[in-house]
Each structure stands twice: as structure tokens, then as C-alpha cells.
Amino acid sequence: MIIRVFDDENSLAAAAAAQAARAFSTANGLRGRARIVAATGASQFAFLEALTATPGIDWKRVEMFHLDEYIGLPKNHPASFCKYLQERLIDKTGMTNCHLLKGDENPDEVIRVASEAIRQSPIDVAFVGIGENGHLAFNDPPANFETQAPYIIVQLDEACRRQQVAEGWFDDISAVPQQAISMSIRQILKAEEIICVVPDARKAATVQACLEGDVSPMAPASILRTHPNTTIYLDRSSAGMLAAETLSAFAASP
């Protein structure tokens, strides 16, 4: 694992986008296409803006998999991650090979189709964030670290649902679905490379727990420390509670 810290969210986003573009290029050179997992949420706004503005990416050769989606939410709802990806990634790039998790369809069938597709070939790079409760995708604590199923149905805990209200996706917690489809922890870890984008001071305590505490289902994103090719992108605010020793130990090589 590598930790990179930047002065602000925009410089963080630019650096993460540059690494993503290099991963795409490497995958295209090896296999003629790049298979990616795309994250959503407010923490990914600047990163996706920088990524979609990066010149030289052949988006027709990118195959995208969806990380998670609320069950029962129509795609035209403001909080729909299908809508988010359509507007912030697909429409901006002209990408055509996309595996979206449709929240208003039968979740068992959605999982079956997405699981069959993702099993066909390795994922080159996964983009993820870390939730305020430490979740990775919608794997809230205590997360299932064991299942090998690519996608699972999960219960959303209160902390996760309150975060969605605080970020403005829903008017109140009663409107937030209680279940979601999520890529499993083990499936995320199968990616050849993971780029984890985590800006903002409100994530500082969680970042500290996940990067300095025990690797535990109670801090789901802590599992990223076991992956051999993960880069954590932080700004000064989200890195504010990390010890200097941690930043030094996991700093990128000169």
C-alpha cells in the first residue's frame, strides 16, 4: 500500500486521474482493453472530473463495472448511482461497454448478470472511496470478508444512511433505502490495482482507524492494507489524524 497526501482535493484528483490513465494504457497494451470498477459519491466528484478531462484515453476500449447501488431506487432518482455514473462518466466519455446495477430491477437477476460478466476476465483497476463508517463500497461494518460472490445484497447501517442525508442525496433518513447491491470485499481485492480517493476532514478519523487500527470487518476499508497494489489518495484534511510514522512508512518511493 502507498499513501499519497496532497494540499487540496483538486491536486489529489489530478494525480489520481493521471495514475488511472497510466493503468488504462498498460491494460490496453497488454490486452487491448481496460476493465475498471467505478466508484460514486461526493468524494469522487473532483476525481471523475479530472479523469474525464484527461486527454488520450480511448474510452471505447474501457469496460466499466458498477461498484454498488441502492435496491428499489429508480435510475432517475437524484441519489441513483446509475444516474451518477451516466452523467459524470458515461455521457462525458462516450463509453459504451458498461455494466450498471439497476436498482429498480430484480436484485437477484441484476447480481446474476453482473457476476457472470465480471468473472470473464480480471479487473485492471478499481476506483474506490472510504465511507464515514469505514465502508468499502456498501460493505458496512461488520463487513463480510469471506464471501467469494462478486456481488451481494447488504444491509445499510444507520451511519451510512445518515451520511447520504448529510451529503444531500436524500431529504431525511426515512427516504434512504435499507438495502443495496454491493461488490463484495473479495471481488474488490481481485483488481490488479486499486486507487482509493478519500478527501475531506470528515473522513480523517475513519482514515486513521482504517490505516492505523486493526485490519477488521469493523473497519472494512482496512482490508486495503492487504492488497499489494493499492494507492490511497488523501488531502491534508483527510490525512490530518495520521501519525507521521504512518505517512513515512507508506510513502511513495522517490
Describe the protein in words.
The chain has one domain (2-249): Rossmann fold. The protein is 33% helix and 19% strand. The longest helix is centred in the N-terminal third of the chain and has 23 residues, at 9-31. Strands 1-10-9-6-2-3-5 form a 7-stranded parallel beta sheet, with helices on both faces. It has 8 helices and 10 strands. With 254 residues, the protein is α/β, with parallel strands linked by helices. Strand 2, helix 2 and strand 3 (62-66) form a beta-alpha-beta unit. Helix 1 packs across helix 2 (45-52) and helix 2 packs parallel to helix 3. The chain is globular, with a radius of gyration of 17 Å.
Provide the descriptors you would attach to this structure in a database record:
254 residues, alpha/beta, Rossmann fold, seven-stranded parallel beta sheet, three-stranded antiparallel beta sheet, 33% helix, globular
